[in-house]
Amino acid sequence: MKKIAILFIMMLGIGVISCSDFLDVNTDPNNSPSSTAALTFPAAVASTASEIGGYYNILGGMWVQYWTQDNASNQYKDLDAYNIQQSTLQAQWEELYSGALNDYQFVRNQAKASGDWNLYLMGTVMQCYTFQMLADLYDQIPFDEALQGTKNFAPHYLPGQQVYDSLIVRIDFALAQDFSAKTVTKPGASDLLFNGDIAKWKQFANTLKLKIYLRQRFKRPEVAMPGITALYASGASFLSQDAAMTQFVDQENKSNPLYEMDQRKLNTATNIRGSKTFIDFLQDSGDPRLDKLFTPGSAGQKGLEQGNFGAPTTDVNPNTISRALIKATDPVYFMSESESYFLQSEAALKGFGGDAKTLYDKGVEASFKRFGLTNAASFTGSGEPYEYPSTGSEDEQLKAIITQKWVALAGIEGLEAFFERDRTNYPSHSDGYDDPDYSLGDLVYPIGGVTGAGNYPRRLLFTQFERSRNSNTPVQVPATTPVWWDTF
Q1: Which of 111, 160, 338, 379 is 20 to 30 A from 408 in CA distance terms?
Q2: How many domains does the structure of the chain reveal?
Q3: What is the chain's alpha carbon radius of gyration, rounded to the nearest angstrom?
Q4: Is 298 inside a domain boundary?
Q5: Which domain holds residue 178?
Q6: How far apart are CA 413 and CA 427, in angstroms?
Q7: Is 248 exposed, middle or buried (0-12, 13-18, 19+ CB in 10 A)?
């Protein structure tokens, strides 16, 4: 995906530093080819977008059962079957360390040296966003010793909770700078997310902090709750729009990375099918987002049983199954407006910053609005399928928030939906669609799963590349082992 990211930025006319197809995870950002922070930043964003919006989105989308592998092809069968190896998404790990994270570090170093606090904040927020995602996937990652180039070829891995603490410190430092200083420049075309609006970057930073605190609130409430208290006491404002890269066009190497890799490069649009789990849930509610997320098959909107990629086409005609609706011009979302409101709603549930129901309703409304739909209120009103359970227990209210977050993140933030499922245990797991206790929206063990019924993946494995190159790579544990904040 690096080639796609780089070509895209070059075609935009912004320009980037040159890079090879394969870069060592420890390439020294201080010895990068001649460039500037302003020119390097969009390349870093495109690098993150190419991975977050590509294979990681597929991984999350299949693991929270928006999607399942087509039964007439095999492209993503291993992901759907939970057949996780040391090679799984290895290239994506390498790209993020050698590309995005190194580039963000270059931006931060250069911007700090020149006192350009706008670019410093932008680089810090995006680097922290990327680091958090990797820590949530692997539990431990190279962090404080990473990105040092020839100074350290074998960085130690830092436990996820220590990464989290350091991310907060980095974000707070960036937010505390003087953005009115004479040395500060306007981001201009360098800013692919907010077109130079630094107020929006501050909101993104605050919303990212809220996510970091909420992610650990069940495991470390003694850290999370005071952190949220301080965040709200500071008068922080949060995102009320998408943090997304939107500049894609329907041309080769300039389109949405998922479309580019899955459909343009493979010359097919049928690899990713709608899961029965998700489609049945939307159909039961009469949710109009169903037709915005899936192209119906010859039998209308119909999902394939999760992991039923081994079904003979004589038994299950793939043409009857809905396929994921992925367009060349789709944005890549780092944090959607919906996600921001659902985070705020959960915080409000614990007594922070407003009314949980109002913020929940805004989250649903923002999700509908993304598709040009204006009838969200008809689903969240009294007696409607998505009505917020104001008189219910805290657990019932949290379930409603996370369930609607699960729906809102479909197709755009699959990995985030996976993390939230593991953090909260919503949606729940059931033994199968025919389980007497099965409820619509429950995740089921995939028919073709290889880990054994009930054994769901919780992380990725440390890559073979790392294990062969870095003697400080931690001892491997099964992919079914929960990460540090996963208490369920």
Answers
A1: 160
A2: 1
A3: 22
A4: no
A5: 2-250+341-432+446-469
A6: 16
A7: buried
